[in-house]
Every structure is written in structure tokens, then in C-alpha cells.
Batch of 3 targets.
Target 1
Amino acid sequence: MTRPTPPAPAEVRRARVALSMLVEPGHRALWSSVATHGPVRVLEGLLAGGFEGINSELQRATEARRAWEDPYQAAERALAHAHRVGARVVVPEDDEWPRQLNDLRRLCTEGRGEFTRHAAPPLCLWVRGPLRLDEAFARSVAVVGARAATSYGEYAAREIGYGLAERGWTVVSGGAYGIDACAHRGALAGGGVTVAVLACGVDRAYPSGNANLFDRISEDGLLISEWPPGSDPFRHRFLIRNRVIAAATSGTVMVEAGARSGARQTLRRARRLGRAALVVPGPITSAMSVGCHEELREPETRLVTGVDHILEEVGRLGADLAPIPRGPEHPRDRLDPPARRLVEALRKRTPLTSEEVAARAGVPLDDTRRILPVLVLQGHATTHPDGGYVLAPPAADPPRTHHP
């Protein structure tokens, strides 16, 4: 028996586009059928009234849109529209498809509730920008948070976006006002790559106030969406797209989030997928940090205060360790214990003999007589015209910040 000829890539692409337009993205039953039977056969089966691999749930879910317009024609129009606005569609059969998105299968099979609803991997992604998807996401971190961000949160997001971009990491966010926009702008200012995952068509500027930002991102980074060009930003779509942000990146950093923030859902999905779940703490008096502090109570969530902490969690094991924070270092800190005790025993104005210094410091006299001249040479002590030793003026001992 002759095996059927595999469908041409163009036919597969068109079928995936058509199927993605029949239901909202992340539909578990549709993804499962496509994974088992392939997009071309599933589309043909839906239009023919079904077959054994298509259950009644999927028939009902696609019925309204199948009746509204021919899926093949809708796909052709979407592809033509994408071409006009400088966008393209990427499917799992393409080399540039980010394979880490396939991890979303785990959300379909583990648990219930928010994690399983519209949690399946995408059927396709619409892309606007010059970069390959897989390369853009290869070293990427999501930065998410509140739209109504405070000045503290905006500053933190910009600094994190800038620092990550400067270190060669892609900054991924959702293009919204507040934390998202600041993270994108920080990455652009750092000369790096940033990706905006949208809940509408890649040709739509939503919110409109970020239109210039989206144009800049499309020039040097990527705008991506599961909805075809021209699609509207319905409220439920923001929560659906969050799973892509969580799955495509190595970790998610939540900068600010209220108690009911959608950013918390992104962080939870990242945690469920085994990605790094990172949170920037805020003032306990700020309503915009309530969600952050609640998530920090989860054992698998890590507190971060900057790029060094973030890269320690998502970077190469043992190679991206954050430096240990240290306070200002004084030259006196480098003295050995006996010398430090002698310096502390000296007085600012009253000269002391070697014997007096040794007695005050509890250091043997022979050691004191040997160490005091060295302390004078190092600038820690000075000799008095009337004899004896006094503490050197503060100007001779300026503090220096130590960078390990």
C-alpha cells in the first residue's frame, strides 16, 4: 500500500492559520487533535463533519466561526493582510519555531483551573520584525508587572531592562503601559533586543500611546501574537497570551503587581513550567507591591533586586553568580587584628607613648613598637611634635567602595 504524500509546507501553514482562527488560542482539544492527526487532516475533518479523532467538544467550539466564514478563505485573507503590513506567520514545522513553547503541554495535563484553560501550545505565531524567533528567545527573560506602576516600579523595570540588554539577554514583555513599557524602553536604551507579546494583531498599536514604542520594537526586535493582523485586543486575550511569555523565556521577573494583577498569572505559569520565578520586592505600604510580596511567600519564588540576581537564577550554572553586596571599605579594614587594635587605641589629639598604646590595645610591647612605625607610613597614625603617636586625620583615610 502506497503511503500518502506529506502535505506541502504551504498547505500545512494555511491549515494551521485556519484552525487558529476557528477558536481562541490555547484550546486543549484542538491542539491535541492537531498533534495526533496533523493540521491538514483536522481542518478537513472539521469541515466534513468530523471523524474519529475530533470529539463533539471541538465541533461545538468551532461551529460558530465555521458557519461565519470559510476557514480557507479566512486564512488566505489573513496571510495576505500580514504580507501587506510586513508580518509573517511562523508554525511549529518551521526551523525558527521556539521549541520551549512545547512545554505548555504540561499545563494541559497537570492540575485544573487557570492552568489548563487555554493553556495548550500555540498553533502558529504572527511575527513582525527582522529576527528569528528561536534566536530571540534563546537567552530571554520576561519582565512583567502593573500597568499603574509607581515611579519606583518604573525605575526598577527600566534598570532591569537596560541591564539585561547590556548583558546580551532578550527582554520579553507584553507592551502594556507601566512596567511592560519601561522594560521594553530600558532594553532599547541598552542597545539590546526586546520582544512584545501582544493580545491583538501585530499591526495594532494597543495601547495607542505606545505606538512609537511598537514601531521601534519592530525595527530591531519582534512583535508577536497568536491572533492574525487586524485582531482586536479583547480582555480575555491578555490572560491567554501570558502563557507564551512564561513558556518562551528562561524566567519571569515580576517588578510590581497588585493583588489581582495578571502578572501574577504569568509568574505562576512560569513557576509551573519549571522556569525561574523572580520577584522584585517593594515597600510594604504600596498597593502595587502586594502581589509581589504574596508571591514571595511561595517557596519556589526567588527575591531579586537587580540584574546580577536575575542572571544568577537564569544564567549559566556557576558562571553568572551575583557579587556579594558589601558596604564601603576603609583602608583600616585591610589591617591585621593587632594593627587594627593599635589604631583604635590611638587618640586624635593626645599623644601616647608606645607603652601607653600597647597597654590600651592589649598588644605586646615588642609588637607595638614594630607595628606603630608601619602604621605611620601607611597613613593610619602620625607622630606628635612633643613625642608619641596620635591618630591620623580623617582626610588621610578616605573610604573606598569595594567591588569584588
Note: The two ends are 70 Å apart (CA to CA).
Target 2
Amino acid sequence: MKKSLFTYNYFSYRVKAVNEHGVHSPFVFDLLMNVIYNRNDFYCYRSIENVREQLLNSKKVISVIKQTGDRENKTSEKKVRQITKQFSKSPKYTQLLFRLVNHFQPPQIIELGTSVGISTTYMATADSKIEVITMEENQEIAEIAKQNFKLLKLKNIEQKIGSFAHFLQYLLSKNPNLYFVFFGENNCKQGTLNYFYLCLKNVNEASIFVFTDMYSSPEMKEAWDKIKDNNQVTVTIDLFFMGIVFFRKEQVKQHFVIKY
């Protein structure tokens, strides 16, 4: 996205965004005060951020295969620190993932896009009883994440390596109810919408979907607008770099733009 358009979108967000004083929904107000605006330093933050720091200082180079749709996919060499910087969400947002999971206690989490596993570890650390199923298309990147899971002694994470569509179809056939889905690594409009519509078949009133990079391109903004307008979606919270979607039938359909 052109920098000027991104700046315009961010300026528009800042103009529209409100804090807790502009929210009149008891559900969203409680979420703001107890989760989104919670500044407590939780027990796991330091250990996970230590892992992030090690990754950002790593000199390791790995092969990354880019899916092109052709018979021969493109392979490039990338530094682990480059992958970490580019694809791992900042502490501000990964720690929010932890607080969301800690607050809602979903029995199962599905993550589309493990990358080096920073977001995964935050969600898995919230409660060792929660099953975290995370998907990554690149074998070598998944291996780095696996090492990080071992380092942090996390045993409630199940890794799937390969096509998102393939594993997602399988998981949906085995799990009639989805509780928490993190669409973590997909800045493509059609891919985002395809996975959203797939998951939509298995939502219930307790389901929570979390999206990122909604304003990374005009196409992603279009995808976010379609998600907000969907008839099954009742409440959305727009934090600009992250969007939270709820399906609570008792709620009047509302879209909240929140300062964060």
C-alpha cells in the first residue's frame, strides 16, 4: 500500500477512535477495561520476549518457499531475524492475544500462520489446558517455532505443516464448534475471505475471530469491510492493526473503533 494511503487510513482511524468513555455497550466496556486496556505485567511476558529478542539477534539463515501456484515454487534465503521482524506481531498485540485468551478461556484455538511462534506461545501460555492448533506452510520456519515451544516448555500446542486450506477443512469436519480463530499470517484479500467463510460454518455465540493487517492494502481493507458487514457478525472491535470479531446474538450489531 502507498504510504500516503496508509497514513490517511490511520489518520481516519485516529479521528473515529474512542476510549472507554465513548462506549455504551456493557460487554465492550468490560472488555476494554479488563482486557484491552489492562496494563498488568503478566508472568509470561518476560520469558516470551526473551525468546523474541534471541530471534531478532539470530544470524541464522533459512530457505523460505513461496507458494506461486506453479509447479515450481520460488525458494529464497531469509534471515531468521528478518522473518521475526516482518511477521511477528509486536508485544502490544501479542500480549493482547494472551489477555483475550486468558479472559475468554476458549477450549481450543486455531491459528492460521505460526511463523516463528511468538503469537502461538502467548496464546498457549494463557492456560495449559487450552489446545492450540497452529498451521504453518513452511517447514523450516515451523521448525524454529517448534524449538521455541520446547524452550518455553509448552505442551499444549499441535503443529500442522502444509496447506492452510487442507488442514482447515479437516479440522472443521472434526470440530463442529469453533471458539477462537487467529488469522495471523495472511495479507491477501481472497485468502482471508476464503478462510473466514470456511470458519463461518462452525461459529457459535461464543466464537471469537481475530484478524490482523486489515489496512495493509486496499484489498485487505475491502476484506475487513466484508467481514464486518457479514450477517452472522454482530460486534467488531477495530484497533487498526488488529480486529476482533464476535457472534453474540443478543448484541445489537455494532462496529467499535477503539483507541489503542
Note: The mean pLDDT is 93.
Target 3
Amino acid sequence: MKRRTALKLIAAPAILSFANLARAKEKISYLYLLDPCYDAALWAIRNGKVTSDLIDVEATGANIPTLFQATATKQYDVVMSSGISVPAAAKRGLQLRIMSAGLYMAEAGEGGGVWVKKGSPLTEPRQLKGKTLASYALRSVGYMYVREALQREYGLNLALQGGDVGQVEIVAPNLPAALATGRVDAATLIHSQAYRARQSGDFVNICETGKIMIKLHGRMVSAINVSYPEKLAARPKAFAEFHRMFKESVAYALAHRDEVFVAVGKRANIDPKFFDWWFDKTTEIPAVFNEEHAKSVATAWKIAKKYGLIDDVPPIEPYIWRPA
């Protein structure tokens, strides 16, 4: 074998190895609330419609307790979190930075209804006094908005202990049965349940609390996407790329509804029209964080302090990731 040929063969593996390194992409891990609507928002990333030469996105759905636990352990790069999580985390010594608004009330203000069984004697919220109202999470931001709306609009004392209304927490899948059997007098159904209730007529919505909140405070953010200052500082380009991909994936879902909503609806066994209602009437996924979102979150922190969900209301500006 000629010396030149031998050298070429020896060098070839090294050249290929460097080429592979050049093509290697960073990973951004994202933990989000397990929900078919967010599966729709991420569909374009998962199915190669929104891509990147810089990063791969590893998105995982989880329930609320897992989201809380994972936020504290910093095992994911980006986590979907409660809109009031930042000051609560700071109180425990955990620094978070807001990357984008994850859930934002739609202008129509639907989705925050108070539901009763068809034929119930309850026809308006004032009649809830002395009755039982169920929620899937009494200390959630979504239910906090229900409490704020009912207290401000109808004068009900919505303290969890000693208030005008008995408030109980029931796991989400059991809410319709609890309402149907009379175990509770009213309930705040999750969105998929509310959609089915609208279609079936088995339950009646006696109050859209979202519309009241919009009248009182403007549209409200209920969830945010957060990361950690040290992670953002170490890989700013990678996080900026995630930010771009997430925004484009949401836009793709809304521009290709027949493709995305049908695919996700089939997998989740949900009518694709549910996603039209959800995105158009109940909730937006902004995937950015602008001044209106910042104002909304700051307002949410004040409401949360009033209801004893957080202790302090710090200025929001230091907690915003500036590229957002």
C-alpha cells in the first residue's frame, strides 16, 4: 500500500468524527402540563414541521405535582409553571426567570365557568352561599381567578376556611360524576369537561368567571414557561432557539388546524372542534412575554397575596428573561 493512501485511510475516521461533532446539536428539555391542547401546540416540533440546526427539543408532559417537583430539582431546562410560582420559589431560595406566557385568557373569556347539574335550583352565583363548590385544585391560579371573580362581582366570601361557600378539591376526572350525583352543588370543570358539557346539555353554566376577570383586571396569565438564570446565561443561543421554535410551533398549529387538531384529537379521543373552541374562546398560548403579560402576572401576584397563596409581591422586572 502506498504511503499516501495509507495516510488517507488513517485520517478518514478523524475527519468523519469531526464532521459528526460539527453536526451535533444541543438538547433543550421542556416539561409541560400534560394536556392535549399543549400536545397540539408542540405538534409541529414533534413532527418535523418546525426544526433547528442548533437544538433538539425534548418535550415531556407531566401532571401538576410532577411539574412542581421538577422545577425545584432543575432537571429540565424549561418548565411550565404556575403564574404565581416565581415569588413563591424566590421565597425558598430558588431563582426562576420567565421566558414566555404559557396560558393566557382569550378575549371571549370562556372556560372558567361555574357548572351545576341540569335542573339544579341554582341559577346564579349568589345562590352558592351555603352550598358546595368543587375544583380540581383549590390553590391553583385558575381557581384563584374563580374566587376573585365571585367575590368581587357577587360579594361572596371565598375564603377556603370559614367562607360563604364550602369548597372541596376533587381529582379532575371525578368532577362530572360528583356533580351529576349531587355530591357537590357546583363545580369548576376542566376545559375538556366543559366542552362536553356544552355539547351534551347535562350541566348548565351559571357564570363565566373569565369574563368577569377581564372586566376587572384585563386578560390574565395563568401559566408561564420558566428557566433558571444560570442555565440561560450558559446557553443563551440555545434557549433563544427554543423560544423561536416554540412560538413557530404554536403558529403552525393555528394555521394548519385540519392537520394538527385532527391528529391530536384522534390520539386523545377528543373532538377536533374542541381545539377550535379552546384556542379561540378560552385560552391563548402566546409563547412570548410582552408588557401586557407582565402587567397580568404582576396583578396575579397581588391577588395571590390577598388570598394567602404567596407571602410577598416583588417587582416583576428582575424575573423576566430579557430576550423574551
Note: Residues 1-12, 14-21 have pLDDT under 50 and may be disordered.
